[in-house]
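Quick start: read one record
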Amino acid sequence: MTVDNVAKRAIKAAGGAPTVAKLFGINPVSVYGWIENNRIPAERCPSLERAAKGVVRCEEMRPDVDWAYLREHSVPEQAAA
């Protein structure tokens, strides 16, 4: 049985490791580490979910985080003026 690598799916859906690294302004090696460990830092999940166009949700990337609470209590992003 193959273990589902959620990090790999999310990063692939967002355009691949180099694209995700550029999005966050980090080294691609860090993103490959997320894939290797199958663990995305929780603070990166919302942006990665948007970049992946919702193909992989935060709840799937990090089921240990109470995303329902955070979504309910988050401040809406301001539109650029």
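The first helix runs from residue 6 to 13.
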